Each structure stands twice: as structure tokens, then as C-alpha cells.
Amino acid sequence: MTLDVLAMAAHPDDVEQTCGGTLIRMAETGYRCGVLDLTAGDMGTRGTPEQRIAESEIAGKHMLLHWRGNQLMPDARLENTISARMTLAVRIRELKPRVVILPYWQARHPDHYRCCELGFEACFLAGLKKLDEYSEPHRPFKILYSGLYTNIKPSFVVDISSQFERRMSALLSYTSQYGAGDEGSGLFPQEGEIRERLAAIARFYGNLIGVRYGEPFIVKEAMEISDIVAMPVRSI
Ligand SMILES: [Zn+2]
């Protein structure tokens, strides 16, 4: 299996909220996209890990994914251990993505920044020839950090205006989380509320580049521009 883009996330339904529109857009362009969820949300108030995984597979179909996997690591207690890094490094060698999308390195939820740390270190390890004798070395060319859970200025924004509804359908596939159940209903937003919230966030980032809906990303390195006359986004 060779992917063009692999998004790694701590919990099923993270990708649907942070970079799902971009994955859909890349799939529509013809790229092979995949998602690796590190946990199955086993500490969640609602639903079971089996339910979350089944829902994530339905969501993956909405997002036109080529591949989706779940590492079944412990939810809410993700740890950056050698065995976790090695497991992810071998996954990266198998999937050979050119681009990896990780959560931004600062976050309120410890699983989110641990996922970032684990993914970043696994990308490095995956490129070491002698890491594992059963798989070929592969180091992703580009690492993008999804900036949606944080409040910092993105390096760039992807226009997801045409992908927004499909991304919403993907998120609403998690009926155990966003359905009208009783358990923890004070904690969990209903469909109307989640739709309004996601639209407002996507609208905010879209506005930064003069489109309806957008998803923000951060990169550590500078971006190259070869034609300054053709640069998009009107100056303010
Ligand atoms: Zn999460």
C-alpha cells in the first residue's frame, strides 16, 4: 500500500474536525489518502471502542479514504514510548506516505500533543535503514501540522468550501458521539450546535484567504514561491 497523504490523529473523529476537508479535496484530485487513529476513544463517555471504529470506517468512506487503521493505543493516556514510536515507524514504512499530517505540537488535550510528538519521531525513525529488517526505509517528504485545535496564525489555509458538506457527513457518522443519547448529553453537542460551531471555525479560516470555508495548517520550514505575480490571496 502506498499513500500520498497520511493523517495521524489521537482519536477517531479528530481528523474529521481538523483536516478532513483537505483529505477529501486531495482524494478528489486523485491522491491516495489514509488516516491512522492511535486510539479508539475507549475512555469516552459515550459508545464503545468497537462502535467508534465502525463509525470511523463509515466516516472514512465519506472522506473518500483509501485506507484507515486504528492502533488501539490507550485513550487519554497516550505515551511516547519506544514501542509506540517503533510501531508507528513500521506503519509509515508500510504505507509510504509522501505527506504526513499531524496535530499541532501544543494542545489542551495531552493525547493531541503526544500524537504529534510520536508521529514526528516515527517519521524520522521510519527513514533509518537498520530500524527493522522486514520493511524498507521510508521518510515522508513533508510534515504538516493541523492548526485547527490551536489559535495561532496558520502558514497556509486550504479552501474546503466544496468539501465542507462531505466533511460534515463524515463527522456525523459518529452517531454515538453526536446523536441524541442520554448519557452525558450535557457534555455532547447536538447536530445543530456542532454544525454551527464547525461552520463558524471553517468560515473564520476561509475568511483569511478570501473563501467561504478553510482548514489551517502550520509548517516548520519556509514555503517556496516561484511566481510572485501569480500569488493568491489579496493583501489587506
Ligand atoms: Zn481528540
Structural descriptors:
single chain, 236 residues, alpha/beta, globular, binds zinc ion
Terminal CA distance = 44 Å
Q: What structural class do the secondary elements suggest? A: alpha/beta
What helical percentage do the residues reach?
A: 25-40%
Note the total helix count.
8
| Main pleated sheet | 7 strands, mixed
Bound molecules: zinc ion
Supply Rg: 18 Å
Uncertain regions: pLDDT < 50 for 5+ in a row? none
String of helices and strands: EHHEHEHEHEEHHHE
Rounded mean pLDDT is 94
Globally, the shape reads globular
Q: How do the strands of the widest beta sheet line up side by side?
A: 3-2-1-4-5-7-6
Map the helices and strands.
Layout: E1 5-9, H1 14-18, H2 20-29, E2 33-39, H3 49-62, E3 67-73, H4 82-95, E4 99-103, H5 110-126, E5 142-146, E6 156-159, H6 164-171, H7 175-178, H8 191-208, E7 214-218
Parallel strand pairs: 1-2, 1-4, 2-3, 4-5
Antiparallel strand pairs: 5-7, 6-7
The structure holds zinc ion (ZN).
Structural features, described:
The chain is α/β, with parallel strands linked by helices. 38% of the residues lie in helices and 16% in strands. It has a 7-stranded mixed β-sheet with strand order 3-2-1-4-5-7-6, with helices on both faces. The model has no long low-confidence stretch (mean pLDDT 94).
Q: How would you summarize this macromolecular structure in one to three sentences?
A:
By secondary structure, the chain is of the alpha/beta class. It is built from 8 helices and 7 strands. Helix 3 runs antiparallel to helix 6.
